[in-house]
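Appendix B: a complete holo record

For completeness, this appendix reproduces one full record from the ligand-bound portion of the collection. The bound molecule is pyridoxal-5'-phosphate. The inputs are the chain sequence and the ligand SMILES; the output is the full three-dimensional arrangement of the complex, encoded as structure tokens. No fields have been trimmed.
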Amino acid sequence: MPRPPYDLTTLAARAGEGAWPPGSVPLAEPIYQSTVYAFPDLDALERAMSGEESAPFYYRNGTPNAATLERALAALEGTEAALVAASGMAAISAALLSVLAAGDHVVADARVYGVTYALLAEELPRLGIRTTFVDACDLEAVEAALRPETRLLHVESLTNPLLTVPDLPRLAERVRGRGVLLSVDNTFASPAVFRPAEHGADLVTHSVSKYLSGHSNAFGGVVCGRADLVAAARTRLTRLGGTMSTFDAWMTLQGLKTLGLRMRAHSGNAQAVADVLANHPRVRAVYHPGLSGHPQFERAAELFPHGFGGMLAADIADAPAFVRALAGRIPLAPSLADVVTTLSWPWGTSHRALPEAERRRLGITPGLLRFSVGIEDIGDLLGELEEALAG
Ligand SMILES: *Cc1c(COP(=O)(O)O)cnc(C)c1O
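The structure of the chain with pyridoxal-5'-phosphate bound, as generated:
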């Protein structure tokens, strides 16, 4: 995959610069709130419908704002093409359904996002598609799970909530030439800190509701990859009706402009918070790939030379009191990647469907809090956290 000619910060900031006729042009992308487009004659309509010309015609097939966002996200991930969708799950569903058919087999990391797990474990078997869940950090376990009918290996570049880091280059090596596509959910990292396609991923998915939009005010998903794979996913998504709304595409473009700056701040702040928590007597464990005790510390540093984004988790004694002490300053909110720091509680939210013993086996304890570290001034943030830990 060739490196883009500009730094990601530049590409992201310029997202939305469209092709306009000569003359004065809008500097900011307008919102195209039209469900259908009119054509001057049958030839023009034919060119749009046949795909010979990429002219918009009907909202469900894609809006101009979605097309602008797709060009920007493909450039950021370094892939040929991208397809945006109504949610992260719509994007993942379209990606999986475009690759898989009855009789096919999937190998997936047991730590994938809960709803992705449910899709693989409960929905796809109804279509005759089976999944084996493994620890994707264990290359031998992955190898042992591969079967002649395996078509897809699905992992996350940074997992929720303990931030494990599968060895993507080695996983790509293991499946290459075996008819198995490597699909990577890159939501927790964002392309500003990690680009899976550069390490052998065939499909890269995101919930754009997280870092790509970055302000908890836009909802959507994306599949990035080779043009033919993305075209197949587009056919599935359009028929299933998972089109991204034009307003959410436009809002995501606004957020995307600062992705490079935001991720630098998120990464630096998260490392500083991890360092402070790791040295506090009230904290039983901290999970962050930048701490030397992390199980994939060295591999993570090679793969993520510019930081790991804003996510970390910590097991804190008397967690309910810690959360209460932060009320009005650091909110408890079951999502991530806002510019403000938020906390979430995996035991009671993302992992509540798992049996208690299984949660504990994975390291999800009742005192585990996941931090989505924001871009606030680090002195202010550490001051609030230290005060809450002391109280
Ligand atoms: C949020 C999330 C999803 C699902 O995205 P939605 O936009 O909520 O549908 C998938 N994967 C990961 C890692 C997520 O954090």
